[in-house]
Amino acid sequence: MNKRLFRTQFNQMENIEKQVLMESLAARYDMTFLGLHTFDRWGQSCTTGIFKKDGREFVFVPGDTVTLGWEQFAVGLNQESREELEYLFREWEMERDPEEMIRESMAPVRQAAIGPMLVGRELEEINWEPVKMDDPRLTVHPDWLKEFCDFAWSDSSSLTLHQSARIERTEKGFQICIYNHTDYDALLAMLENRGFSLPTADEWAYLCGGGCRTLFPWGDELDYSMRLHWFENMDEDENRPYDMEEPNFFGLSIAYDPYMREVVQADRLTTCGGDGGCNICGGLGPFLGFLPCSPHCKPEVQEDNELNGDYDFYRPIIRLENYD
Predict the structure, then answer these.
(1) For the residues of 185-223, what is the DSSP string, one character each?
(2) Which stretches of the chain are assigned E, i.e. beta strand?
(3) What is the C-alpha to C-alpha distance for residues 131 and 65, in angstroms, rounded to an integer?
(4) Per-residue pLDDT of the chain (324 residues; tens, 9 = 90+)
(5) Residue partners of 175: CB distance under 8 A and separation at least 6
(6) In sequence order, what are the beta bridge partners of 119?
(7) How far is 109 from 33, CA to CA, in rounded Å?
(8) CA-CA distance, 175 to 152, in Å (whole number)?
(9) Residues pairing with 3 in the sheet
(10) Which is it for the CA torsion 226, 230, 236, 237, positive or negative?
(11) What are φ and ψ of residue 249, in 5° steps?
(12) How many alpha carbons fall within 13 Å on the CB side of residue 56?
């Protein structure tokens, strides 16, 4: 494997060398190279290549050998996080050490050798398929069409008929999708057909945390100054992204919404980066609500292989296994 594809050597390269390397990757994988970009966040930085293929953006992520998992605070909780947890413990009439409780949700500490990858920058929906209004799978349901018509005259931005159909208001009109029931094996087969894979749980942890030893990529505490999904009123500027959704040090939008579980490669349906909103729905507050977004949180093995389009999302990757 080309050593220049690994983080230490890659970060030491001049941009002109990186440019040549990225152009060769684009040619090999039939992608359009959009250029180099520096992503600098939470104490980690990478100047890397952005690519486009089939309407989606990819970024080159160099490989590395890193420590993953969590067993103790590297720095410790800040006062706000500690007070939030202590309040919950009082409500539950529990006497617990926060570190001990958090450790139960974390994967064990381990060393992992992560290979270089081309990685989809955004999470993608699985079960929803865009269609036209005259699609026969829609027109056979006059009750759906009536609801869509009522929606069109409303002030709402979207309408979802549970695991059936969805309509969203866009700048160009309306986007309609129908829901296709599918399972984990079908998703893997579809990706393989197109030359893609899913990250493993270890690869996902690296993409999310970059080998950080703190609980979150930015530290052991929750940063309450960030605008967080589900805990921030964004009415003043609805189009402004939430802080955690902004690209990380690899240029990835990852682990920013606990309701969105990211499907990873495993023997059976396994997810990282969220719990489907269970902790938030349970009223556990922002710290425990976002704990499943930690790069070190235990991957969740689901009960069956049926994918849930409301909570399960995927990120295509290409492993550069034999690149010289």
Answers:
(1) HHHHHHHHHTT-B--BHHHHHHHHHTT--SSBTTBSS--
(2) 32-41, 44-53, 56-61, 64-68, 110-114, 117-120, 124-125, 128-131, 158-161, 165-170, 173-179, 261-264, 270-272, 300-301, 312-314, 317-319
(3) 44
(4) 688 899 999 999 999 999 999 999 999 999 999 999 999 999 999 999 999 998 999 999 999 999 999 999 999 998 889 888 888 888 877 787 888 989 999 999 999 999 999 999 999 999 998 999 889 998 899 898 888 888 888 888 899 988 899 999 988 888 999 999 999 999 999 999 999 999 999 999 999 999 999 999 999 998 888 777 767 654 555 566 678 889 999 999 999 999 999 999 999 999 999 988 888 877 778 899 999 999 999 999 998 999 998 899 999 999 997 766
(5) 130, 167, 168
(6) 59, 317
(7) 36
(8) 11
(9) none
(10) positive
(11) -65, -15
(12) 17
Q: What is the pTM of this model?
A: 0.91
What would the two tokens of residue 24 be? 């060769």
Sign for the pseudo-dihedral over CA of 298, 261, 53, 121: negative
Q: What count of other Cβ atoms lies within 10 Å of the Cβ of residue 292?
A: 24
Output b/e per residue, 158-168; b: 16+ Cβ within 10 A. ebeeeeebbbe
User: Who's near 138: CB < 8 A, 6+ residues apart?
Assistant: 131, 144, 145, 165, 176, 178
Q: Which pair of structure tokens corresponds to residue 279?
A: 């902790």
Residue located via tokens 């094996």? 185
Q: Is 258 helix (H, G, I), strand (E, B) or coil?
A: coil
One-letter amino acid of 163: Q
Beta pairing, strands 261-264 & 270-272: antiparallel
